[in-house]
Structures are given as structure tokens and as C-alpha cells.
Amino acid sequence: MDERNERIGYRVASLRKLAGMTQERLACTAHVSRSLVRAVEQGRMPASAAFTAAVARALGLDVTTRAPRYLRWSKVKSDRSCTYHLRESG
């Protein structure tokens, strides 16, 4: 397995879990197959740009700009929804 694929897969899985979604629900919301979500999360398949954009939209993330490496997404909970904001990582 490619280390980059593993890192991306770990991030997808982490964000999915933070959003309280199953692989099946993410796949359905992103209009991709569950087997593709599983393969990307396990690092067995690279995440294409289309997959990344679809998953980001399904998770409610804005991917129009690339954040610097020292910034990371953090989850902010409200009464009815989960949103993600950039925070400085240390």
C-alpha cells in the first residue's frame, strides 16, 4: 500500500466517523459505491479528485481552497448539526 493513500484513507475515515456517518451512508450521500469508500479508507485505492470532492460535499466541507499544512479541520458541534472549522495545529 502507498503511504499517501493510507493517510488520505485515514482522514476520510476519521472525518466520516466525526460526522457520525457509516460507510454506506457516506457512499449514498456522495453518490459513490460503498466498496470504493472502503477501499479508499483502507488505503487500497487512491482517492481521485472526483471522489475527494464528492466526499467533501457529502461531509459539508469546503474544498475550494487548500489550507496550509499547519491548519487542520476541527469539529464544532451545535444542537442540530456538525460543522468543521480550521484551527491551528501545534
Write out the strand line-up for the largest beta sheet, numbering strands in chain order.
1-2
Alpha-beta classification? alpha+beta
- From the structure provided, what is the oligomeric state, counting identical versus distinct chains? single chain
What is the straight-line distance between the termini?
A: 29 Å
**Roughly how many Å is the radius of gyration?**
13 Å
Mean pLDDT: 78
What is the count of structural domains?
A: 1
Q: Which strand-content bin applies to the residues?
A: 15-25%
Q: H/E element string?
A: HHHHEE
In CATH, the architecture is Orthogonal Bundle
Could you walk me through the main structural features you see in this protein, from its secondary elements to its overall organization?
- By secondary structure, the protein is α+β, with helices and mostly antiparallel strands.
- The protein has a single domain (3-88), classed as lambda repressor-like DNA-binding domains (434 Repressor (Amino-terminal Domain), Orthogonal Bundle), CATH 1.10.260.
- It contains 4 helices and 2 strands, in the order ααααββ.
- It has helices at residues 3-18, 23-30, 34-41, 49-59, and strands spanning 71-77, 82-88.
- The relative contact order is 0.17.
- The model is unreliable at 67-73 and 75-90 (pLDDT under 50).
